[in-house]
Amino acid sequence: MSEATVDIRPATKADAAALLTLLPQLQKESTTFTAEPRLGDVTLADEAAQLEVLMASSQNHLMVADYGNQLIGLASVFATGPNVAEIGVAVLKPYWNEGLGSALMEESLYWAKTVSTLQEIVLTVQLENTYAKRLYRNLGFKVTESTTVENAVGDMVPAQKMTLAVRHHDRADTVD
Fold first, then answer.
1. Contact in structure between 89 and 104 (CB atoms under 8 Å)
2. In sequence order, which residues have a C-beta less than 8 Å from that of residue 99 and are 6 or more positions away?
3. How far apart are alpha carbons 54 and 23 in whole angstroms?
4. Which burial class, exposed, middle or buried, applies to 50 when counting CB atoms under 10 A from its CB (0-12, 13-18, 19+)?
């Protein structure tokens, strides 16, 4: 019998219930991850509809890490302005240090560079999150600002804003 593997894939509306379970769990496990405050008010039908709209967008995207039909992580790309989006990644604590955050980021950046209409990806990383800072630098993000942010437990902590220019695959350059 084969062992389950982790599938890094785009979210679908069928993931709505699993996401409504995953998001609060991620927020409980990490002070660096914050979910939308109104999360508890979102119905399953609303979440499915939001996912359908999100996945049809050229500037918003959601990748999930699926392990044996259970979501264990995600990476979100949400537009914050014209051609600019913020990226975020979170993985359940039992799966930390397995390379899933890196895989989710890499797949999301691949989407941003080859499919999206985005020109720039931004993120904010708390300074205490040394693993994430190293990952983002290795992926080409540059520090653009030092700041403070409120973490998931309400404390103000030092952070950095980082930016990555994304180039688009020009379909005219594609060789069949």
1. yes
2. none
3. 16
4. middle
Q: Which fold has domain 6-173?
A: Aminopeptidase (3.40.630)
Amino acid, res. 88 = G
List residues bridging with 163 in a β-sheet. Answer: 122, 142
Query: Is the overall model pTM greater than 0.70, yes or no?
Result: yes
Q: Residues 58-97: pLDDT tens digits? A: 999 999 999 988 999 999 999 999 899 999 999 999 999 8
The strand order across the sheet containing 6-10 reads 6-10, 61-67, 70-81, 84-91, 120-126, 156-165, 142-150
Q: What tokens does 150 get?
A: 């409120």
Task: Provide the residue ranges of all domains of the chain, joining segments of one domain with +.
Answer: 6-173
